[in-house]
From TrEMBL:
InterPro entries per record: His_Pase_superF_clade-1 (IPR013078), His_PPase_superfam (IPR029033), PGM_Phosphatase (IPR050275)
UniProt cross-references to PROSITE patterns, sorted A to Z: PROKAR_LIPOPROTEIN
Gene3D superfamilies per the UniProt record, alphabetical: Phosphoglycerate mutase-like (3.40.50.1240)
PANTHER family given in the database record: BROAD-SPECIFICITY PHOSPHATASE YOR283W-RELATED, HISTIDINE PHOSPHATASE FAMILY PROTEIN-RELATED
Protein name: Phosphohistidine phosphatase SixA
A Pfam family per the record: His_Phos_1
GO cellular component: cytoplasm
Domain of life: Bacteria
GO MF term (any one): phosphatase activity
Family annotation (CDD domains): HP_PGM_like
Length: 168
């Protein structure tokens, strides 16, 4: 009987275990500063590079702000994976962080803006090396892996770039 209880306890603990990876990017290059601005040719090339980079990452949730440029950044991957794009409000950051945290065990792509992506990374418990995203900087890929197990949780951050630098 005691062994059965130990096994049941271990199984209960294992059901609470999960690993999820969150990929956070800024939208690709845009035509102008207008909120409704579309991506440039270089931006469309970059989003295809993003889709190629993430196609094997088992992403099952894609979150963007309601702006065209963030949705265009996520669209190629969403089509490739047949995953719908869900919209989140650009502010407050807590809303998207909460949504990500509810998606336990799911890998997620989040597309945001230069003034939000670092705060999203921090909201997930990671500490980026950058203190700000420069206006022309569109190639950052922040990879936050959240692991919850029997002995607590761990958060790892990997910072990468994707796509080729393009001339303006």
């Amino acid at each position: 009987m005691k062994n059965v209880l130990v096994v049941l306890g271990l199984l209960a603990g294992l059901t609470g275990c999960s690993t999820s990876t969150v990929f956070i990017v800024r939208h690709a290059e845009k035509v102008s500063e207008a909120d409704t601005s579309s991506l440039t040719t270089a931006g469309f090339e970059r989003v295809q590079a993003l889709a190629d980079r993430l196609e094997d990452e088992r992403i099952s949730l894609i979150l963007t702000t309601p702006y065209r440029r963030t949705q265009q950044t996520a669209a190629p991957l969403a089509r490739q994976l047949n995953v719908p794009i869900e919209s989140y409000p650009g502010q407050p950051i807590g809303a998207v962080v909460e949504r990500i945290q509810r998606a336990k065990g799911k890998n997620t792509l989040v597309v945001g803006h230069s003034n939000t992506i670092l705060d999203i990374v921090k909201g997930l418990g990671a500490v980026p090396t950058q203190s700000q995203i420069e206006p022309g900087d569109h190639d950052n890929l922040f990879v936050v892996t959240r692991q919850k197990g029997l002995f607590g949780k761990s958060i790892r951050l990997r910072e990468e770039t994707y796509g080729q630098p393009t001339a303006p």
